[in-house]
Design a protein that fits this description.
alpha/beta, 9-stranded parallel sheet, 7-stranded parallel sheet, 7 helices, rod-shaped
Length: 582
């Protein structure tokens, strides 16, 4: 009814419960004063823009009023009427200039103008555009320069008629700079893909020149397929971990050398393509991807495959071609579902050539045998013609026994120091020339057999083997024992025959649990009297040396059962030896 009061000049409606004003108020062309303070107004009709004689609109104390925005109506009646008039006329003209209104958001009255073809929002305070901007499907040109724009919503991609977009890009974060540099077509294409991904749950952002994964992708939790192939991405944000519905991920042909740990949260991921990047190792986050079925990481710079590969128990296909791989880990033997394994052998060192030269099947069999050792905790690589200890051996957890006899090994790798649980190590009948300090880290050893090698010395670190019970180092070239041998208090058997040992260290007196001492075929001229401290000794083998006498303290060895002294230069034997009644 109010629309019929066309002669009305003054209208006062304060202190009511009004939430809006009817659009018919625009027919009151004579209205000069409108009082609406202390109501519950939420929005005013743009038809009020027709009230050209209006001098005063009082809107105080309407805290919920959002349309038009506060920054407009606080500037006075004339400013407000001008704004509302432009919005009202735009319904017909399809053109709206809302520049320089101090807008911090695009108000509802603008996003409802679905027939707009041109929209100008220059010189405001906009940081983004609302999702509702996508309703303006007729829009062909948008200018929003001199704002503080930091992002454009995906809904902007719905504007398929957009031909000319003008915005300042200095502060723009989304879309990324690389996309913005592609102009209106690039921006609209990017945002269209982003918007459409909500429907088909697929997002393909290939060849955009992206240097990083746009943060907004981390919000697309519904995605099942994501391809970022053929960009320039050098790092992936942790936000990728939000995409927990992802089943396929392509990040090939980029500049990646690492991935965030959060990628491991993608437990639904089945296929991961990382080809043609700069990885030197498998990203650690893969360890958590136990459901992954296909991993392709071809044409990178990977020298060895990380041991956690064995935890990826769902893996069926593993493509490693085009990498200078030097090591294949034994953990590959854990992958019972693996049916397709492809790798280059040009740089492969472990498994050694004598293994992989027999083919992929033989390599897999070797790795599975090493894998079995991870359960039995015993590994036998004897008689395989090995020139080195395969590096994967040092990665087997909790290994108790390692047999390496009858090979051609010249040195033990430093990595063996990690075999801290090893109880028995046999490197009999090899070509060892030296024993490195890493042996000292293997403090759980109870049996160490180094017979028939080329050792000239033993390292001081041998004294760190405080649990050693049996030590056999016969048929080498030793000339002496390190004094640290005295630290091996639990030693019961010490086999040193067929060396070139000229003297025994006095610290031998510390080996009070020693039961067998074999020194046949050395260069001994005397035995230290401290031998008498070996109260548990049962066998003492001193044949084929250069002894001229033996100390009377031998008579203190009450448990001695066997004493071999043949082929020496003995002139007499102390009478005390007769006390050895056993």
């Amino acid at each position: 009814e109010i629309g019929g009061m066309t002669a009305l000049r003054q209208l006062k409606l304060p202190f009511n419960q009004l939430r809006t004003v009817p659009p018919e108020i625009g027919k009151l062309r004579e209205l000069m004063e409108l009082t609406l303070q202390n109501n519950l107004l939420e929005r005013l009709p743009m038809e009020m823009g027709q009230l050209e004689k209006m001098d005063a609109i009082i809107l105080d104390h309407n805290p919920e009023l959002s349309s038009p925005p506060r920054c407009v109506y606080e500037k006075g009646t004339l400013f407000l009427i001008k704004y509302m008039k432009r919005c009202f006329e735009a319904r017909v003209t399809g053109v709206l200039d809302a520049s320089n209104y101090g807008l911090s958001v695009v108000p509802t009255e603008i996003t409802e103008l679905t027939s707009l073809t041109y929209l100008k929002l220059d010189k405001n305070r906009l940081m983004t555009l609302p999702p509702e901007i996508g309703n303006l499907e007729s829009l062909t040109e948008l200018s929003a320069t001199e704002n503080r724009m930091i992002m454009l919503p995906a809904e902007f991609g719905r504007l398929e008629n957009m031909q000319n977009l003008k915005i300042d890009v200095e502060d723009l974060r989304s879309p990324p700079e690389e996309v913005v540099n592609g102009g209106t077509r690039g921006i609209m294409g990017y945002l269209k893909y982003m918007y459409n991904s909500r429907i088909d749950k697929r997002l393909v952002l290939e060849t955009f020149g992206l240097q990083y994964v746009p943060p907004e992708i981390g919000e697309l939790r519904y995605l099942e397929h994501l391809s970022l192939t053929d960009n320039k991405i050098s790092s992936v944000s942790a936000l990728i971990g939000n995409l927990t519905n992802l089943t396929t991920l392509f990040i090939s042909q980029n500049e990646l050398n690492s991935l965030p740990g959060e990628l491991g949260h993608l437990q639904k991921l089945r296929e991961l393509f990382l080809d043609k990047n700069s990885f030197t190792v498998l990203p650690p986050c893969l360890e958590k991807m136990t459901a992954l079925e296909l991993l392709s990481i071809r044409d990178n710079k990977i020298y060895s495959v990380s041991e956690f590969i064995g935890k990826m128990v769902g893996l069926k296909k593993l493509y490693l071609q085009g990498n200078p791989i030097q090591t294949l880990p034994w953990q590959l033997g854990e992958l019972s579902n693996l049916v397709d394994l492809l790798f280059d052998t040009n740089e492969l060192r472990s498994p050694p050539p004598e293994v992989w030269s027999l083919g992929t099947a033989a390599t897999v069999r070797f790795l599975k045998s090493v894998y079995a050792a991870s359960e039995t905790r015993r590994l036998d690589l004897s008689g395989m013609g090995l020139h080195t200890v395969p590096s994967i051996v040092a990665t087997i957890p909790s290994l108790l026994e390692l047999q390496l006899w009858n090979n051609k090994i010249k040195e033990l790798p430093k990595e063996m120091k990690y075999l801290v649980t090893l109880h028995e190590l046999s490197v009999v009948d090899n070509e060892l020339e030296a024993l490195g300090p890493e042996i000292g880290f293997m403090s759980s050893l109870t049996s160490l057999k180094l017979t028939k090698n080329h050792l000239k010395t033993l390292p001081t670190e041998i004294g760190s083997l405080v649990n050693l019970v049996v030590f056999k180092v016969e048929k080498n070239k030793l000339t002496a024992l390190p004094a640290s041998i005295g630290n091996c208090h639990r030693l019961k058997e010490l086999w040193l025959s067929d060396n070139q040992i000229a003297s025994m260290p006095i610290v031998i007196e510390s080996l009070t649990q020693l039961e067998v001492l074999k020194l046949i075929g050395n260069q001994l001229k005397e035995i230290p009297k401290e031998i008498g401290s070996l109260s548990a000794l049962r066998e003492l083998h001193l044949a084929e040396n250069k002894l001229t006498t033996i100390p009377k303290e031998v008579g203190s060895l009450r448990h001695l059962e066997k004493l071999l002294l043949s082929r020496n230069d003995l002139h007499r034997i102390p009478i005390e030896v007769g006390l050895c009644t056993r």
